Every structure is written in structure tokens, then in C-alpha cells.
Amino acid sequence: MRGRARKLPPGADPPVTPRLGELPAPPTPPGLLKTSKLVKVYRADGVTVEAVRGVDIEVAIGEFVAIMGPSGSGKSTLLHVLGGLEPATSGEIWLRGKRVDRLSTAAWAILRRQHIGFVFQFFNLLSNMTVADNVELPALLAGATPRQARKRREELLAELGIADKAGAAPARLSGGEQQRVALARALANEPSVLMADEPTGNLDSSNTRDVLRLLRRAHAGGQAILMVTHDARVASLADRVINLYDGMVADDAKIVPIPRPVNGVADVLELRG
Ligand code: ADP
Fold first, then answer.
1. Which of 40, 41, 107, 216 could pair with 103 as two cysteines, CB 3.0-4.6 Å apart?
2. Per-residue pLDDT tens for 59-108?
């Protein structure tokens, strides 16, 4: 019966299509990442450094958040703790609705393979492996078959304009190309969130532009991004900027897109419904 129009009984009112204003509100998207009173203290040689001091943040699925602040304000530490690269001292971290701050190192490693892609300032590629192997490895570790990993690698390298470098050793590539490989590697397992620590910190302006274009494209495709940066131009791509100062959130502001002017008949009709 599905797909065939039902005949209305005589005298019955035809079904009413709800008007825009009567539609139910869309459900609130579930959060991607949430912290509560997050603290990270380093203790070494009798010295205590409170790098992160009670951070409460929430990141939505698909959101692009820039983390800014002066040097030493705790940006990298926060990112490393959120990605499980360093254990939190206290507080809570929730990823996709699950509490993760108490996980073991091994459990974090599995979680990262499945949900988190990392891009660092210094690329951190494995020098004794080819570009192709560097990109395929995370997908293989996340459980993809060799064929799936190869396909994803081919797609990513082609999209990033470095398909011809697949067989090269990372050291033979320019800084910009290495950072693209690092991006491809981070995106290989289709992570819930891409965490990037100053990904353009070591690039010239033309390579910076390219890497930012790629980040913007990933974000437009629904990829959540959490990016530490010093550069206001880089941060301007984000939906939101969190400013850290002295290990605490000093400011958390959404970047509001400039509204489109109402200037045509189509707009008037649209407004009237
Ligand atoms: P930012 O990324 O904003 O420059 P960091 O997170 O690197 O700041 O550092 C925050 C504070 O934590 C600084 O005082 C720094 O010296 C200290 N710190 C960072 N990493 C370590 C570490 N592994 N051991 C001890 N102190 C650290």
C-alpha cells in the first residue's frame, strides 16, 4: 500500500500541511564534548604548575571551536587532556555522552582511534613509513580492512592535492605537504572531532591558506574541530572562540555570521511564508 495515495472518505477534510511556524522545534543536538571543573596540575621536581584550573566547556556535534589565549595559558594542555594524551588531575570529561576522564591509557587509545583525530604543529609523521602508510595506519588501527583503508587514503590524498606523494617518505615533502598528510591521517578514521594544536604554526602564508581551506572544507562537511591557535585570522574561521587566561576560560563567544540583507522580492515572499 505504501506510496499509493489514499482515497479520502466523502466530506473529509484534506490533510493540512503544517505551516512553518507550527512545525515542532528541532531536537537539540546531543553534545559532542563536555567538561566539568576540569583541572590539570603538573608536578615535577617539587614544582607544581596548575595548567588548567576548573574549565567548563561544551562543544556541539559539528562545531568548530578555536582556543586562544596568551602563551602559557593552558591551551595545549587543555587539548591534550581532552584528547586523553595526558590524564586529567580532577574534574569530568564527557565524549558523546560517555564519561571518559577515568579511562585507562589503553581505553583512551581505543577511544582516540575511533573518535579523535590529532594534528600537531610539528606534523608528527612516522618518518620510516611512506605517506600512504602514515595515512592508512589510523584507519587500520580503528578496524578498517586494508582495502577500506587504502580507498579512504586514496580519497583523502586526492582531495588534499597530494595523491602523487603517496609513495614518498614524509621527509621528502615540504612543510605544507607534510601538514596535509597529517590532516589526511587525522581524518582517516572519520573522527567525531579533529583536535589541532597550532596546525599552521610552522607554515608560510600560502601553506597556511591551503591548510585552512582544507579545515574549512572538513568543517563544511560536518566535521567538529577543536583548534588551538595564536592567529586571529585562523580563529575567524571558527563558529566560536574560547579564550583561556591563566588556565581558566576568560571568554567564550560565538562568532555571529553577518545576516543577509533583505533586498529582493524573493526575500519578501520568503518572510511572508
Ligand atoms: P599554552 O599552550 O597556552 O602555551 P601550555 O598548556 O603549554 O600553555 O602550558 C600551560 C602551563 O603548564 C605553562 O606554565 C607550562 O609551563 C606548564 N606545562 C605544560 N606542560 C608541562 C609539563 N609537561 N610539565 C610541567 N609543566 C608543564
1. 107
2. 999 999 999 999 999 999 999 999 999 999 999 999 999 999 999 999 99
Cell 555570521, residue located: 257
Nearest to 191 by CA among 224, 215, 217: 224
- CB of 243 within 6 A of ligand 1: the answer is no
pLDDT of 23? 57
- Measured CA to CA, the distance from residue 131 to residue 162 in angstroms comes to 10
DSSP string, 3-66: TSPPPPPTTPPPPPPPPGGGSPPPPPPPEEEEEEEEEEEEEETTEEEEEEEEE--EEETT-EEE
Each residue's pLDDT tens digit, 30-50:
589 999 999 999 998 899 999
Q: Where are the domains of the chain?
A: 62-85+104-256
Domain 62-85+104-256 grouped into CATH 3.40.50.300: yes
Top pLDDT among 121 and 172 is at 172
Q: Is residue 74 within 6 Å of ligand 1 at its C-beta?
A: yes
C-beta 25 within 6 A of ligand 1: no
- Tell me the CA–centroid distance for residue 39 and ligand 1, in Å: 13
62 Cα–ligand 1 center, Å: 28
